[in-house]
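## Example record

The block below lists the input lines for one assembly entry, exactly as stored, with component labels intact.
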Amino acid sequence: AQTVTQSQPEMSVQEAETVTLSCTYDTSENNYYLFWYKQPPSRQMILVIRQEAYKQQNATENRFSVNFQKAAKSFSLKISDSQLGDTAMYFCAFMKPNTGNQFYFGTGTSLTVIP
Amino acid sequence: DAGVTQSPTHLIKTRGQQVTLRCSPKSGHDTVSWYQQALGQGPQFIFQYYEEEERQRGNFPDRFSGHQFPNYSSELNVNALLLGDSALYLCASSWGGVANYGYTFGSGTRLTVV
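Predicted structure tokens for the full assembly:
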């Protein structure tokens, strides 16, 4: 079974500073996908960044980047130059391809950006 | 280009009743997945519909059932509601072939069972 663990229930960061959210996962698979999703008060899950396990290069999307350590089964999200609009719940998620493409989500980290 | 639309946005039901939630997928998507998000938790996979059939199912009892229509829209039905069914129900659509890329979530239906 796949499990995703987010050990930081709540975090805060000053506007314009950098923050890192942690995520670990457990799987016996070699090929899979990892994601970070943002859920603002509007409740819609919004894709922040994705990583294919077979790629050694860490994914980046503007101010968002990941540190993917496959051997350690770790997948942290770094947010640079934090903005007030980054305030939201952040969920780490795992997907095993070709099995209905279902997500396995962590319990989330509530991030507050302080002005 | 419309995204995923869910209705209703909020719903209050009494224990033992039945409820139907609805989802219209994003234009061009043919696959619909349903997730249950309890308060303070991450979403949990209920099931996925593709070509009007249930393709994959999570660890949910048979009280949870669904349907997909020829226009790809979908319904989630929950019978004999329990207090523990209170949650945000999220629908996500994708295209059958590349679901890991094209997943789009709706804003959910907040179900409260009293």
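The mean pLDDT of chain B is 92. The longest strand of chain B covers residues 87-94.
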